[in-house]
Recover the amino acids of this structure.
């Protein structure tokens, strides 16, 4: 079972660093296809998510870029740092699979 990366959050974090998917793949030691899948919202392993998060924490955020990014354009809602893990996409109750009783 994998986890889905919140696409808008990943797009915003890449933009904040001036990175492409290829830059992230290289920094995380992952294939471009794996990073592209994560960006598309497909499920990835917890290990892959950790590698992506670690790579992003090593890259500096460009000065002044937050003022230039539009949350709606990036498709992300900016969550406070104290929020539950903003990298994860948690399925709503209506989209969760139900196991036969």
């Amino acid at each position: 079972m994998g986890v889905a990366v919140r696409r808008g959050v990943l797009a915003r974090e890449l933009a904040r660093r001036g990175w492409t998917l290829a830059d992230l793949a290289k920094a995380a030691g992952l294939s471009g296809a794996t990073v592209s899948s994560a960006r598309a919202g497909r499920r990835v392993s917890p290990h892959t998510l950790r590698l992506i998060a670690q790579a992003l924490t090593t890259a500096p955020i460009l000065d002044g870029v937050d003022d230039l990014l539009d949350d709606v354009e990036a498709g992300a809602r900016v969550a406070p740092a104290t929020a539950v893990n903003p990298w994860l996409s948690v399925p709503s109750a209506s989209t969760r699979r139900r196991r036969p009783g």
Q: What stands out?
A: The domain at 3-78 is CATH 1.10.260.40 (434 Repressor (Amino-terminal Domain)). Confidence is low (pLDDT under 50) at residues 72-84, 90-96. Strands lie at 3-5, 43-44, 88-89. The radius of gyration is 14 Å.
